Automatic annotation (TrEMBL):
EC number annotated for this UniProt entry: 1.11.1.7
Role this protein plays: Removal of H(2)O(2), oxidation of toxic reductants, biosynthesis and degradation of lignin, suberization, auxin catabolism, response to environmental stresses such as wounding, pathogen attack and oxidative stress. These functions might be dependent on each isozyme/isoform in each plant tissue.
Family: Belongs to the peroxidase family. Ascorbate peroxidase subfamily.
Gene3D superfamilies (alphabetical): 1.10.520.10, Peroxidase, domain 2
Protein name as catalogued: Peroxidase
InterPro entries assigned: Haem_peroxidase (IPR002016), Haem_peroxidase_sf (IPR010255), Peroxidase_pln (IPR000823), Peroxidases_AS (IPR019794), Peroxidases_heam-ligand_BS (IPR019793), Secretory_peroxidase (IPR033905)
Length: 320
């Protein structure tokens, strides 16, 4: 009898956990601000259009911010918090230091949104919308962004250092990193396609262009011109071999041709489980764009704060 009671109790606990998880996701809705801030999406879109018109690279930078935010304790805008004398944020974690950028753009959007809808829209939702609009403005796909996230009052530099996938990682490690966030190997491969836009620092690809063997020699020689064997860590090179700042599938064509800039990029096409999918995306732009949009929604659903959890920050850089 005791064992039966234990089984029933365990089943109830599991059911409660599943229902709680479902309830959290159910609170995210594309229409979350339909009444409280009806012009939200127009404000964000117009603000991002101005930012991208000034600097096309900013679309890639905001996409990276969102990715790095979601991989550390969920999509909660913790990456936007500044360090203070009594608070350590994530901006100076190794994956973000000297490379995370676009914070001023989010500040501007937040200010514009606050003017229209005071203390209503979270920084986490603004970052999610700005990411989508930046991709669209660079020629990428659109998607409905589920909204209703709230902002974290905490951050974790240690989690940022350990949970954001490394540009030096092998395929098994990358798959494991994504699985820890509820994302599968297909999500890994399609979300990595975001590297079709943006730039990378020499420090993140030096070892690949000097030491990897699965690399096109002409491509390696070209990248060495901007990335010496020592020094120049902050010198930049386009992640895509065709630096058009347009969101397309050239990233996958590069992988097939062994022109992936980062070691972690080329791991997706290196005789492993993702080779066939990379070939599909390299030949089929429409499939890549559709899959990317769907994967962005899944990533945006990583552990959101909802309901009464967290807060709606007045300033994205500091807790209220």
């Amino acid at each position: 009898m005791a064992s039966i009671v234990s089984i029933v109790t365990l089943s109830n606990i599991l059911l409660i956990l599943l229902l709680s998880s479902a309830a959290a996701n159910a609170q995210l809705s594309a229409n979350f601000y339909a009444t409280s801030c009806p012009n939200l999406q127009t404000i964000v879109r117009n603000s991002m259009a101005q930012a991208v018109n000034r600097e096309r690279r900013i679309g890639a930078s905001i996409l990276r911010l969102f990715f790095h935010d979601c991989f550390v304790n969920g999509c909660d805008a913790s990456i936007l918090l500044d360090d203070t004398a009594t608070f350590t944020g994530e901006k100076n974690a190794a994956p973000n230091r000297n490379s995370a950028r676009g914070f001023e753009v989010i500040d501007t959007i937040k200010s514009n949104v606050e003017t229209a809808c005071n203390a209503t829209v979270s920084c986490a939702d603004i970052l999610a919308l700005a990411t989508r609009d930046g991709v669209v403005l660079l020629g990428g796909p659109s998607w409905q962004v589920p909204l209703g996230r709230r902002d974290a009052r905490t951050a974790s530099q240690s989690a940022a250092n350990s949970q954001i996938p490394s540009p030096f990682a092998n395929l098994a490690t990358l798959i494991s990193s994504f699985a820890a966030k509820g994302l599968n190997a297909r999500d890994l491969t399609v979300l990595s396609g975001g590297h079709t836009i943006g730039l990378a620092r020499c420090a993140t690809f030096r070892n690949r262009i000097y030491n990897d063997t699965n690399i096109d020699p002409n491509f390696a020689a070209t990248r060495r011109a901007r990335c010496p064997a020592s020094g120049g860590d902050n010198n930049l090179a386009p992640l895509d071999s065709v630096p058009s700042a347009r969101f397309d599938n050239n990233y996958y064509r590069d992988l097939v041709a062994q022109r992936g800039l980062l070691h972690s990029d080329q791991e997706l096409f290196n005789g492993g489980s993702q080779d066939a999918l990379v070939r599909t995306y390299s030949n089929d732009l429409a499939t890549f764009l559709a899959d990317f949009a769907a994967a962005m929604v899944r990533m945006g659903n990583i552990s959101p704060l909802t309901g009464t959890s967290g807060e709606i920050r007045r300033n994205c850089r500091v807790v209220n």
